[in-house]
Amino acid sequence: MAAQNGFCASVVASSSCITSSSSRGRKVRSSLNNNINIKAWSVTRHFPRRISFKTTKNKAVAEPSSSNDVIDDFGLLSNMAVWSNPANNENYKLQTQILNLTNETTVIRSLDWDRDRFDIEFGLEKGTTYNSYVIKGSEKTVLIDTSHEKFEQLYMDSLVSVVGNDLSSIDYVVCSHTEPDHSGLIGKVLERAPNATVVGTKVCLAFLDNLVQKEFNKLVVKGGDVLELGDGRQLKFVPAPNLHWPDTMFSYDTESEFVYTCDAFGAHYCTKDVFDEELPKLMPHFSFYYECLMKPNARSVLTALRKCEADGVKLSTVCTGHGPILQRNSEELIGDYKKWSEKALEKAKSSVVVFYTADYGFSDRLSQSIARGVVKTDCEVAMLDLSTCDAQQIVEEVGRASGIVLLAPPNAKEEIQDNVGVLIGAVKPGKQKILVCESYGGDDEPVDPLMRKFAEIGLQESQSPLKCQSSPTEGTYQLYEEAGTDLGQLLTQKEKLKEMKSSMSADVARALGRVSGGLYIVTAVQGTAKSAMVASWIAQASFEPLGFTIAVAKDRAIESLMQVGDSFVLNCLGEDGFEAPMKHFLKRFPPGADRFEGVDWKPAPCGSPILAGAVSYVECKVVSRMDANDHWVIYSEAIDGGVFNKDAKTASHFRKVATYY
Ligand code: FEO
Fold first, then answer.
1. Cα 179 to ligand 1 centre (Å)
2. Residues within a 6 A CB radius of ligand 1
3. Whose C-alpha lies nearest to ligand 1, atom 3?
4. How high is the pLDDT of residue 494?
5. Which end of the chain is more exposed for a tag (fewer CB within 10 A), N or C?
6. Distance CA 304, CA 227 (A)
7. What phi and psi, each to the nearest 5 degrees, are found at residue 506?
8. Nearest atom in ligand 1 to 248's CA
9. How far away, in angstroms, is 285 Cα from ligand 1 center?
């Protein structure tokens, strides 16, 4: 076989057949067919612009393979490449992996071994994968999703290995969801398969138009639509909006009975295991992923599960977009999604409906940030797309909600304006709170007059309308998330107080109240997002390494900046002079406010503020987090530190009752 596209390809002597973990009774069989005879392939050139590959640096948080050979159970692994992130100059190891799941179905996994963050709130401990699938029907070949653009060369080469050098044999490219980790290379695929038809929901294809920015063949599908792949084999579609964007849909292959779910049921967990073999190791990542990405959409999860059941879609082999394919434990893991979503709804003390406009500005992403903030406070969230929902849905959802969030819709769309009219007619003045926000779409209905329409009929705002006057940054998403948390707290505070009082014995509360603590200011930074909080529930927890725990309420804004691997600074306050910093940081800051305005500080090497008013500081790195019901107990390692006043005594904090800080 000749080298392809400048890639060095060596030849395996004969086609081989690999059985994947047959000793464990796995249902699939993987075979290397004749056109995947590349034993090893090396990255030599054609790197995308702005992306540079350098020598591998030893930074892995996961455990990459160094081999480029065919490996039993793991299929074909490419050579390792290294991507340099222009944002922080850190190097990240990249690799691709190909495994035939059946004779006709192949997974191409892009292994992002070192990725350490997904959005502001989602710290990653074990990297992630972006999974793409090829199905060769007897008449049609389908590609389901692609990869992140930083994988361009590795991914395109893998695709050629699977499909052949002529990518025009791809008939359909199914786009399950347009977030760039899955759709980032669709444009590149279409350059080499210009006649392929891209299949997606209406919202998805509208998004994709903006992403690809050239003409391509499109097929809009809705629930129940099918693609014929030959000999009666069909790909059946199930829309699953909000898992994780409004554009998402599942695809179900009636022949293999594999379902392709993109973000849903995934995990940011990068290992060579293509399947969910080691459940105890996978589980913390699977549940954390649910918590961050799916819990804000618990109702949408249950709706999608119901639709799958009604449409005869079996969830036994779940081909996810991130992490392992679920097969060995799919029943248990899907059951967990159902159980967690039901629990989130049962536990909900209040309900918020978020109105956004899919395919308009940053409405979808900003609305997800708000939903995430609201869910932190034990509120249920319903997401409604103003461009597709009907009057009955609006009236029903508004009727159940205590809080309403409205992302400014575009001025020019008449049908959307009609829906806003229905919303105004459906609200319950005096009984609900509303939050109005900009969408940064270029034609936003101005938010202040929009808010006035609600105020005139007696609806109270939870805070002034949120403004977004430039392309959103980490700080903007933090602002929207915090505004969501504020709204949720407003709606649930009475109920929570009542519950806390009734569930706690006065004697126990008084006894526990005698446990004393110190007084500290915790500061943390991620990009343009900055936060701080007064802390008292802190205790040293280990000598080697020097480590301590800190309890952080789940609805604290700073919690998002204290994920595993994140750094922060613990500022210790002294017995003398603790009042001023404590008073400052105890203030209730409006969402997105700069907590450090007027405060004297300098950045630690990690960027988090060291306060001039502290008697000492410790720079720390989060090692693990334990779920303690309404708090996270965060165990961190002390990395660096200094004492400014060696004679000062640490401030102590005494209470009489354990029901408050
Ligand atoms: Fe994995 Fe929402 O993208």
1. 5
2. 177, 179, 181-182, 244-245, 263, 321-322
3. 179
4. 85
5. N
6. 20
7. -60, -40
8. 2
9. 15
pLDDT at 64: 53
Please give the model's pTM, rounded to 2 decimal places. Answer: 0.77
d(CA 454, CA 434): 8
Q: How confident is the model at residue 50 (pLDDT cuts 50, 70, 90)?
A: very low
CA of residue 509 to ligand 1 center, whole Å: 44
Q: What sections of 457-505 are H helices per DSSP?
A: 474-503
Strand residues in 278-340 grouped as ranges (E): 317-320
User: What is the identity of the amino acid at 590?
Assistant: P
Phi, psi of 552, rounded to the nearest 5 degrees: -125, 125
Cα 286 to averaged position of ligand 1 atoms, centre (Å): 14
Give per-residue pLDDT as tens, 67-88.
Answer: 444 445 789 999 999 999 887 7
CA–CA dist 536, 661 (Å, integer): 8
CA 648 to ligand 1 centroid distance, Å: 50
Phi, psi dihedral angles at 420 (to 5 degrees) = -65, -35
Give tens-digit pLDDT for 446-477: 999 999 999 999 999 999 999 998 999 988 99
State whether residue 417 is helix, strand or coil.
Answer: helix
- Closest atom of ligand 1 to 245 CA is 2
Q: Report the C-alpha gap between 616 and 447 in whole angstroms.
A: 45
Angstrom distances, CA of residue 429 to CA of 53, 173, 405, 432, 455? 58, 48, 15, 6, 9
The span from the CA of 595 to the CA of 606, in Å, is: 18
- Could you tell me the pLDDT band of residue 264, with boundaries at 50, 70 and 90? very high
Q: Mean pLDDT, the chain, as a whole number?
A: 87
User: Is residue 144 pLDDT above 70, yes or no?
Assistant: yes
Measured distance CA(310)–CA(473) in Å, rounded: 40
Cα distances from 185 to residues 51, 127, 143, 148, 358, in angstroms, run 14, 20, 12, 6, 22
8 A C-beta contact, residue 127 and residue 62: yes
Supply the pLDDT for residue 412: 81
- What would the two tokens of residue 250 be? 């599942």
pLDDT, tens digit, 9 for 90 and up, residues 623-647 = 999 989 889 999 999 999 999 988 9
Give CA angle at 261 (206, 60), nearest 5°: 100
Which of 120-124, 142-146, 215-219 has the lowest average pLDDT? Answer: 120-124
d(CA 326, CA 576) in angstroms, rounded, equals 57
Q: Using the atom order of ligand 1, give the atom closest to the CA of residue 322.
A: 1
Report how far ligand 1's centroid is from the alpha carbon of 603 (Å). 33
